[in-house]
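The authors assume throughout that readers already know how a fold can be written as discrete tokens. For illustration, here is how one protein appears when written out as sequence plus structure tokens:
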Amino acid sequence: MGYRSDVVIVTKIENKELVKLLQEDEEAAEEQYFFSMKDYNGKHMECFFTRYEYVKWYESFPQVDKIEAAMRKIEDDESFGFMRVGEDYNDVEVIGLPYDFNIQLSRTIDINYGDDYYIHNPKQTKLDV
């Protein structure tokens, strides 16, 4: 089965090598698109967004290695953002500045009660034994 991660990569389109590699990986990506936004100085920028869900993101995989190598070559950390969240609670990797592209980490606890779950008395907090 293997260890899985969710990955988001956002880059300005000027990072042509990274954009090209991400586009080549279109089938593996959950979502890809070009978009425009303003940076923190109000300057317009064109960007490319890629999201992978529940993917094996191992450096030993050729495409992952190529993508990470392309990110390491980028001199301007403000021109891209990478965030990977693994299965382990504290496994979060950030490269570049994903927050500048409105990419943020959010953790929640969800409870799926389902049809077979019934709360008898929501105000009762103690059990008489």
